[in-house]
C-alpha cells in the first residue's frame, strides 16, 4: 500500500480509501467484515456522510473500537449553521467517536450554494466552531464542478477537496488538482468506476491511482471488493501504462459531462448517467451495474424521442452550464436498444 502525507494535515493516508456510502445496502455483518478487513490490510481512510442513510451507525458499530487506526471523514449537505451543527453533533454520536478528522461541506455545485455555506450563519461557520472546540480537525469541500472548486479553494479556507476522477471524468486534472497541489491541500478522488459503469475494475482503479492525488475513494461493500481494489493498485503505474490510460481517458471523456446534475428531466431520465456511460459502453462495455441501469431505465430513455415539449428545444439542454447535446446522446442510447434486438 502506498501512503502519502495528506496535504498540510500531518496525516499519512493510504492510497486506497474506503467509501462507505453503499454499506447500508448490504447486510450488517457483511459491511462489518468489509470495514475490518480493509483496516487489517492497511486502508486507513474511511469516508461517509450524514446523509448516507445509516452508514455512520454502521461505522460506529463496526470499527469504533479501532478508532486510532484510521482517518475518519464525513460530510454535511446542509448550508446553514444550525442544521450543519446538528449533523456534526449527530455524526460524533453515530460513529462513537470524540473527534472527526475531516468534515466536508458536501455537494456544492453552484455559486449560490457556496455563498450560503460560507456566509455568516452558514455551515462553514459551524464547522469552524466545532474545529475550535476540538470536535473536528479539518474542513473540506466536495462538488461536481471542478472549475468552480478550483476557484473556491483558492481562498485558502479548506484543508481538503473531494472530486470526481475516473477514465470517463478526467476534468479535475485541468485546474482543480494543480490548484489543490499548489495550496498543499488533501486531494481525494472519488467515483473511480464512475458509479459502477467502468470495467475492468483493475484498469478503472489504476487511472486515478496514476494521478497526483492522495486517496482514491472506492465504494466497497464486501471483503471481495476490498481484495479486488487492493489488487488493482498493488503495483505502481509505469510511464507507458500512464500514457495509455490518459489516452483512454481523453477518449472516454468526450461526453464532457461533469455530473453537476443541473439537468432535471421531466421524464426522470438520469441524463448524467446516460452521458457519462455513452462512450464507456461503446469502448469498454459496462459493468453489470451499468447494464442494469439501462435495463431499468429502458422505457424512460425510449420515451424521450416522443416527448413533445423537448422536440424543438430540449429542456435539459437549457439548464446545462456546458451546453452539451444531451438529447442527441439520449437518442443514441435509445438506438442501442434496437441494435441489441437486431443482433440477437
Query: What about the largest sheet?
Result: 8 strands, parallel, barrel
What string, H for helix and E for strand, traces the elements in order? EEEHEHEHEHHEHEHEHEHHHHHHH
CATH superfamily of the largest domain: NADP-dependent oxidoreductase domain
Helix fraction bin: 40-55%
Oligomeric state of this protein: single chain
Q: Per CATH, which architecture of the largest domain?
A: Alpha-Beta Barrel
Distance between the termini: 45 Å
Pfam families: Aldo_ket_red (PF00248)
GO molecular function: oxidoreductase activity
Organism: Paenibacillus naphthalenovorans
Protein name: Aldo/keto reductase family protein
At a glance:
With 344 residues, the protein is an alpha/beta fold.
Task: Show the helix and strand layout.
Elements: E1 3-5, E2 12-14, E3 16-19, H1 28-40, E4 45-47, H2 55-63, E5 71-76, H3 81-94, E6 100-105, H4 111-118, H5 123-132, E7 136-142, H6 146-153, E8 160-164, H7 176-182, E9 186-190, H8 201-209, E10 215-218, H9 223-232, H10 239-252, H11 271-283, H12 288-296, H13 298-303, H14 315-319, H15 326-342
Pfam family, one: Aldo_ket_red
Domain NADP-dependent oxidoreductase: 16-200
Organism: Paenibacillus naphthalenovorans
Question: What does the model show?
Answer:
- The chain is an alpha/beta fold and 344 residues long.
- The protein folds into 2 domains: 3-245, TIM Barrel (Alpha-Beta Barrel), CATH 3.20.20; 256-342, no CATH class.
- Helix content is 44%, strand content 13%.
- It has 15 helices and 10 strands.
- It has helices at residues 28-40, 55-63, 81-94, 111-118, 123-132, 146-153, 176-182, 201-209, 223-232, 239-252, 271-283, 288-296, 298-303, 315-319, 326-342; strands at 3-5, 12-14, 16-19, 45-47, 71-76, 100-105, 136-142, 160-164, 186-190, 215-218.
- Helix 1 (28-40) crosses helix 2.
- The protein is globular.
- The termini are far apart.
- InterPro entries: AKR, AKR2_Oxidoreductase, NAD(P)_OxRdtase_dom_sf, NADP_OxRdtase_dom.
- It comes from Paenibacillus naphthalenovorans.
- This is Aldo/keto reductase family protein.
